[in-house]
Amino acid sequence: MSTHTPRLIQEVMMLGGVARTSALRARGLSRYDIAHAVAGSAAFAVRQGWIALPQADPMLIDAARRGVVLTCVTQARRLGLWVHEDDGLCHVGAAPRAAVRTDQGVRVHWARPLIPRDPDSLVDSRHPP
């Protein structure tokens, strides 16, 4: 294990368990640190540019894998809020022309958000980046 692996794990945990590699690099971790953590199974590659810890929230891993953010009813449920009509689908947000992997059980909201999304976030937020 690299001496930087514990720091990488801590940084990814602070970012919610799933993180863009560019965000980790901006925090001072090298490509080597990231590759070494993945090779040593401390983290795994979700898709190009994203890694996750083994114990990360499966919904966040899936959002990163699909290239979307959790939004709408799904995010309300995650926050413990009451939802009027819950269709049981996973609601995600994507840019109008984004290439998104979808399947049954997922409702994609193809729109530009009123508040710009933080490219490092996997959940819609009311806070601008």
**Can you give the mean pLDDT?**
89
SSE ordering: HEHHEEHEHEE
Share of residues in helices: 25-40%
Distinct helical segment count? 5
User: Main beta sheet: strand number and arrangement?
Assistant: 3 strands, antiparallel
Global Rg: 16 Å
The neighbouring-strand order within the major sheet is 1-3-2
Instruction: Please count the beta strands (DSSP E, at least 2 residues each).
Output: 6
Low-confidence stretches: none
End-to-end separation in angstroms reads 34 Å
Overall shape: elongated
Quaternary assembly: single chain
Q: Which class best fits the helix and strand makeup? A: alpha+beta
Portion in strands: 15-25%
What does the model show?
- The protein has helices spanning 5-14, 21-26, 31-39, 58-66, 72-78, and strands spanning 18-20, 44-47, 50-52, 69-70, 90-94, 106-110.
- With 129 residues, it is an alpha+beta fold.
- Helix content is 32%, strand content 17%.
- The strands form 2 sheets. The chain has a 3-stranded antiparallel β-sheet, sandwiched between helices. A 3-stranded mixed β-sheet has the order 4-5-6.
- The model has no long low-confidence stretch (mean pLDDT 89).
- The chain contains 5 helices and 6 strands.
